[in-house]
Design goal:
This protein is of the alpha+beta class and 135 residues long. It has a single domain, classed as Hotdog Thioesterase (Thiol Ester Dehydrase, Chain A). It is built from one helix and five strands; from the N terminus they run βαββββ. The protein has one helix at 35-54; strands at 18-21, 58-68, 77-87, 91-101, 109-121. It has a five-stranded antiparallel β-sheet, covered by helices on one side. Strand 3 (77-87) and strand 4 form a beta hairpin. The radius of gyration is 16 Å and the shape is globular. Bound molecules: coenzyme A. The site of coenzyme A (COA) has 13 residues, from strand 2 and strand 5. Coenzyme A binds at residues 59-62, 88-91, 118, 120, 122, 126, 128. One of its GO terms (molecular function) is long-chain fatty acyl-CoA hydrolase activity. Belongs to the acyl coenzyme A hydrolase family.
């Protein structure tokens, strides 16, 4: 895993790529937030960074690393930060970090996930296309 983008504190003053509240519908059979829900939010946050860099359609090709660091609870406000860390010919590697602001009326905030995902820029036929030098 690449070096973390942020310390364990919620990066105040920096807007997350997405912010979403964990809802009862996102729980598993035990009543805890389903890991797949968080993976999906992480992928969305990563894809936005990749899409902007590719200036067009992209697909997820690989989840290189994914770590669930702390649980997410119903009512938590989850902020996801993402940053492009490597650009190849057609691929874009993105680091994503998630923080949960707890819903218990405190300032408590925990790092909940870290991931590194690779996206590929694709053309109209769904084939890889060069990302180019566009920033
Ligand atoms: C993404 C896709 C178009 C790539 O097609 P492909 O012909 O296999 O592409 P290539 O082998 O040329 O690889 C494309 C890039 O991905 C990289 N790549 C391939 N496999 C990879 C892997 N396992 N991990 C990281 N990067 C990988 C290659 O290094 C290459 O990067 P570069 O051009 O920057 O050097 C094709 O695999 C695909 O459509 N996959 C399904 C994607 C999808 O539907 N995702 C959502 C799932 S619901």
């Amino acid at each position: 895993m690449s070096e973390s983008l942020h310390s364990d504190k919620l990066p105040r003053g920096e807007e997350p790529q997405i912010r979403v509240m964990a809802m009862p519908a996102d729980t598993n059979a035990s009543g805890d937030i389903f890991g797949g829900w968080l993976m999906s939010q992480v992928d969305i946050a990563g894809s936005i960074a990749a899409y902007r860099r590719a200036r067009g359609r992209i697909v997820t090709i690989a989840v290189n690393e994914f770590r669930f660091i702390n649980p997410v609870y119903v009512g938590d406000l989850v902020s996801l930060y993402s940053r492009v860390i490597h650009v190849g010919n057609t691929s874009i590697r993105v680091m994503i970090e998630g923080f949960a602001e707890r819903s218990r009326g405190t300032d408590e905030c925990d790092r909940v996930a870290e991931a590194e995902i690779t996206y590929v820029a694709i053309d109209e036929q769904g084939k890889p296309r060069p990302v180019g030098d566009s920033a």
